[in-house]
Amino acid sequence: MERGTLDAVSGPGRGRQVADPPHDEPPDILRSLFAAHFRGLVRLATLLGADDPEDIAQEAFVRLHRSGARLRDQGSALPYLRRTVVNLSRSRLRHLRVVRRGVPAMPDVASAEHSAVLREDHRELVAAVLALPARQREALVLRYWLDLSEVEIAEAMGISCGAVKSHAARAIAALERALERLS
Amino acid sequence: MTTEAKLRAALEAWADTVEPSAGAWAEHGRRVRTDRRRRVALAVGAAAAVVAAVAGVAVGLSPGRQASRPPAHRPTPAISPPDLGGSDSPPTSAVVPVGSVPRVGDYFVYWSHGRLCTAVSVHGQGLSEGCAPTRVTIGDRALRPLSWDFEVSMALVRRDVASASLKTPAGTYLAAKIVTGRGFPVRVAVVVDRRVTADDRWLAADAGGRLLPTGQPFQLEIHPVIDALTGEDCVRTHPELNGEIVDDPANSRCVALAWTDVPVTRTVAATAGRSMTGPSWDVTVTLRPADAQRLATLTGEVMRHRPPHQLAFILDGQLLTVAPLTSRIGGGRFVLDGGFDQRRASEIAAELAGG
Hints:
The complex is a heterodimer. By secondary structure, chain A is mainly alpha-helical. Chain A has helices spanning about 30-45, 55-65, 70, 75-100, 120-130, 135-145, 150-155, 160-180, and one strand at about 115-120. The two termini of chain A are about 30 Å apart. By secondary structure, chain B is α+β, with helices and mostly antiparallel strands. In chain B, about 25% of the residues lie in helices and about 30% in strands. In chain B, the strands form 4 sheets. In chain B, strands 3-2-1-4-5-6 form a 6-stranded antiparallel β-sheet, with no helix packed on it. In chain B, strand 4 and strand 5 form a beta hairpin. The longest helix of chain B is centred in the first third of the chain and has 38 residues, at about 25-60. Chain B is elongated and about 85 Å long. The chains are: A mainly alpha, B alpha+beta. At the A-B interface, helix 1, helix 2, strand 1, helix 5 and helix 6 of A face helix 1, helix 2, strand 10, strand 17 and strand 18 of B.
């Protein structure tokens, strides 16, 4: 089970090799960070409800590359990446809400690569999580999927620890109500 | 099990289905280079703007230059006529208000050589066909007449079903759209696509475009995946499989499947719906109790063995999808989640549900 720490970029059925790095662009330290955390950040963006999680994770790494200072301090790189993914996912969802308000849904492109088989109870719970307000969803995902401490969650979300507790408690209560309705 | 524990399990299962693409690192390099070029361009643009502003101030201070400057040329934007979508072409389908069908049963209405003709089947038995009603025999619930005219546009109408297809001179069937009521005295009832399956079973759509089952269900095979490789590597890597390899042309790869005892299942119900976990559509499938038990055994075994924990779903002999499996599936009810567009999800559900 991956929880934000990863060891390879390639996914199942997509070949086994990791692509060669582009010529002398990203430094080695970025490459190791990328190999270790890219998949986890894509998954984090997915759990936060982003429609293009890989794009968001890529953008987070580009911003990390742009701010070279954080690259030199590996301890701050991962929190920075997490915070960027959380912020970008939230912005993306806000943008999508505006876009979808007046435009009919476009046909989606089929791809077997994004298929999955989920147990129905998992699917219902995931759907309930996605129906939560963004802040509550973020608090739940960071706490119960990444197992972050309240301080780390507060840093990733840019809020206080008290607000984290409040969002998480409300989210759990909302989920319990949703599960009761489903049962 | 507490809500928190359930939530952890669901989030883990969901996250495990997400895999970034293999070219992610190369894509990152491309983005970094693009970002660098963009920032350089912005810097150059800003410098140019400063130079232009300074030069503009200098020119503006020169006496007499302001009055002699010619008026800025603003080209009038071209106004294009709206695209009417081939409005000069003749109507390709009959036009039938669904609510006006007078009897319960299966109705065909087709446009042939300028004439509006009908064929009526009541539960596959009492039938009439042609521009004047004539009796015709078609199979139980088979929803087509025995004979076809050259270039016939055809609509199928039941109480809740309306669909259309176009038969070409070469004898192949094309999806047709009823786009307008031109040529017919009644309002358009349906705007749908339809297709004819290889064995002439029909997939019909209701007036909202949702596909409805009209024939026998297709067989669904579920196999564990041993490997999925690009090109023809499956044959070279797994020569012992001999026949247990299927092509996945959509992803330019082949998939090596494990043999299973009784992989073929029949579904009790299948419905398409907008995915609750993404922007795409999914299909909720319910199996018969016996098949549900076999699926539970199969998925339990897959999860116990080494990765990849993937299942291949083969529908009517064609690879439908390869999907990661996140946990044993008991109860025979599961969701093929994500990756399908609305039309494909509806087709899959219709094919699985059958008649």
